[in-house]
Amino acid sequence: MVPPNSNSPEGSSNCGREMELDRIAVIGSGNWGSVAARLAATNARRLPCFQDEVRVWVYEERLSTGELLSDVINMTQENVKYLPNVKLGPNVVADPNLESAVKNATMLVFVMPHQFIDETCEMLKGKIRPDAKAISLIKGMELRDEGPRLISREINDQLGIDCSVLMGANIANEIAVEQFSEATIGFKDDKETADKWVQVFGTPYFEVTPVQDVEGVELCGTLKNIVAIAAGLVDGLGMGNNTKAAIMRIGLREMIRFSKLMFPTVQDATFFESCGVADLITTCFGGRNRKVAEAFAKHGGKRSFDELEGELLNGQKLQGVLTAAEVSSFLKAKNWEESFPLFSSVHAIATGLLPPSAIVEYAELRKIVGTPELHV
Ligand SMILES: NC(=O)c1ccc[n+]([C@@H]2O[C@H](COP(=O)([O-])OP(=O)(O)OC[C@H]3O[C@@H](n4cnc5c(N)ncnc54)[C@H](O)[C@@H]3O)[C@@H](O)[C@H]2O)c1
């Protein structure tokens, strides 16, 4: 059961805010969502400016045992499907009802595969506090007619609330067992709220740094998943460390180039934060995108990413292939494909236009795109 709120309102001055205690809701309960809830719950218990209870919206599903996932989480404090063997905390409440999960929440943490954000925001309209603050831990983009749109922007536009982002070298299972890592919070202009988000997530083993570059931070987290697919292909093809390092360097160059084309305000320094090179490195060596791409290459591209995702990820979702498709359609519309050979090749390989080996054969790509070079 959830303990009664033991925080005293007087203590809230320690957090630099008025008397009302902030209430945190986590929207999403996959692998990273569960770890985010665990971090937030630890700080909600520890810091006087937060209400103890952290509600987590669970996209309900029936487990193979016949039980409902939310019931099991509330009984055992464990997300047995997406984060087994890790206690989330006594103050975490799993709620399958989105409206009651976010009721009275002042701090909303969005963490779900990006393909579900649109419908979730739609369901949240009119259900959240108008003064709520949001943060997105989601890596990916929404494809719109005018080009790809960042998820933080989607949340901001659909719900009319300020949305920061948290990205970094954060493989969820490692943070769940409290191995030291870092993360970056990207914020637009509200430093006070960014500092509050640092309090929600920061612990001695999870060091969080705020940076005033929301687009740069989010694009790092999103685009590196495409590079991770390329790294996985290289692994599956049995190529060595030099090749992987080259792929990562080319990928980072495309990440910077693409980010600056979309948002000229993006800062170079952001790519040296945890959300930049550090996340790129961890994702190209661990993580689900690399893993599935490796299997794809080992099967010679004959089994689809969808099929391998279902087989290898136990309900978890792959982001890199979808992001490559979204980025590619934007590059195609702009005639910029040849300036982004790695991004374009990943998409062409994932859709069967090119074989996995084309990840290191950019001449092959030129045969199917053949557009003028853009120097950015
Ligand atoms: N897992 C990690 O290590 C990690 C680390 C950093 C960032 N991220 C990012 O966090 C985000 C969320 O990933 P995750 O690891 O928490 O999820 P996940 O891939 O582990 O799990 C999938 C989740 O999607 C939910 N779902 C399925 N259908 C849905 C629907 N129609 N509507 C809403 N939800 C639905 C499932 O219930 C489950 O909670 C992604 O953008 C991911 O890139 C993940």
UniProtKB/TrEMBL annotation:
PROSITE patterns given in the database record: NAD_G3PDH (PS00957)
Residues reported in the UniProt entry to bind substrate: K139, R288, N289
Name of the protein this chain belongs to: Glycerol-3-phosphate dehydrogenase [NAD(+)]
Origin species: Riccia sorocarpa
Active site: K224
Coiled-coil zones: none
The enzyme's E.C. designation: 1.1.1.8
Domain Glycerol-3-phosphate dehydrogenase NAD-dependent N-terminal stretches: 24-191
